[in-house]
């Protein structure tokens, strides 16, 4: 009887492990099946490099270059905003802050991570968007800049907590060795600690970027959703994710537009997949070192 | 004798939180000699050593009283910690080069003092490596990673990088605990040469090592400095029974 129980439990655990992989495969297959048939009608180059996204005009045009650039602008802005701030915060939490402030800050970072993105988008819409409109004297505050800042907030918890782990994992002997050679605390941090923690910090940033690219709700609310090729950060943009979310509800099932949205899904999948692989590569390097 | 004193320690008392690590220790450390500090684990000898370059300060809950004078100046009042540590270098138990090239490991100290002239750095690197008996082994691969060296080489690299800062005193914290006998012999050999120019304090678990290289020996036990005397006298006719018991191997 006991033998039988063991057998059942073992198989159940095995099954749950396999199922996860199976689901991923099924999702991917479904995505490919729905997305690839789109390229029977439209050339890949026309899709990726086309400048106009008019899916319901006659004839429809399916160029996603403005959407790719929209995602790129918002992501780039978020990185410029979030990465320096997050690395600074990670250093403060890991190296400088006294124990009590450290615990307080870590809780704060966790809370920031747990804010639903729709709430962030909402707050951004009410506060940030009017500010941008007033400060830069632009016709609308719904811009790439607004999206970048709000998404920066979303990426920060990821970057901070993983960077902090990497900094804390730097052997004490490195720091002591540097200090014993007459280096100041700042010199030690700047010359030794950041150097030793670099792979972990890069991985943290990549994972943060992954989060930003995949984010939908907040960008849909505050970037203005105009599918035009952006030239500055003070222009409305539309991202890949927002396009799918906004149009999937109204699209005619089985139409070219429908398949085009799936193709966008494939592109997104490939981008985030590559980012995660890169992050994994750096994290793995930390472990084997 | 007085003019020949390098460190003068008076009533040094150290606590880490509730742990009373060192109990009112007083002693003088002579210039250009090797003082060996021996004693069992947790005897306070490493705490004593790390007090001399104020490295204990990097730990939480550290409190001290008493005074340590280096050439007549109070190390806790008259020095900045970085300035003190440039005069009082330290070699650790685990040889842990920084994750940089061999060259940059040695140049690390001088660079932090603002020396960036390539010729001066080159000269400092070569001179330090020669003094640590490592130059011949690494001169063709100065740009390769220091972490690729063997354990003994890494320890001599750590000695070299300390020498590059041009200290007056070098503290050795069980420098041979992870090394094989041949590497140990090389490190000991370099210590004996180095004492001509530097004052050395050596903490060691190996009483034989203390007997081989030290001029004077201090015996620590449970936070007390039991006695401190010329090496020969400690090993042949110690004043305290506990010292004798430790040396002949009754405990520890």
TrEMBL record, chain A:
The molecular function terms of the Gene Ontology recorded here are:
phosphate transmembrane transporter activity
Q: Briefly, what is this protein's role? A: Part of the binding-protein-dependent transport system for phosphate; probably responsible for the translocation of the substrate across the membrane.
Which GO BP terms apply?
Answer: phosphate ion transport
Record has Membrane as a keyword:
yes
Gene3D superfamilies attached to this UniProt entry: MetI-like
Annotated keywords: Cell membrane, Membrane, Phosphate transport, Transmembrane, Transmembrane helix, Transport
Q: Which PROSITE patterns match?
A: ABC_TM1
Q: Where is the ABC transmembrane type-1 domain?
A: 68-279
- Per its record, how is this protein called by name? Phosphate transport system permease protein
From TrEMBL, chain B:
Classify the source by domain of life.
Answer: Bacteria
Q: Which residues form a coiled coil?
A: none
UniProt cross-references to CDD domains, sorted A to Z: ABC_PstB_phosphate_transporter
Which example biological process does GO assign this protein?
A: phosphate ion transmembrane transport
| Annotated GO CC locations | membrane
SUPFAM superfamilies to which the protein is assigned, alphabetical: P-loop containing nucleoside triphosphate hydrolases
Keywords annotated in UniProt: ATP-binding, Nucleotide-binding, Phosphate transport, Transport
**UniProt-listed PROSITE patterns:** ABC_TRANSPORTER_1, ABC_TRANSPORTER_2
Kindly give the InterPro entries that the UniProt entry links to this protein: AAA+_ATPase, ABC_transporter-like_ATP-bd, ABC_transporter-like_CS, P-loop_NTPase, PstB-like
Gene Ontology MF, one = phosphate transmembrane transporter activity
Q: Which residues form the ABC transporter domain?
A: 7-247
Which Pfam families does the entry mention?
ABC_tran
Q: Return the protein name.
A: PstB
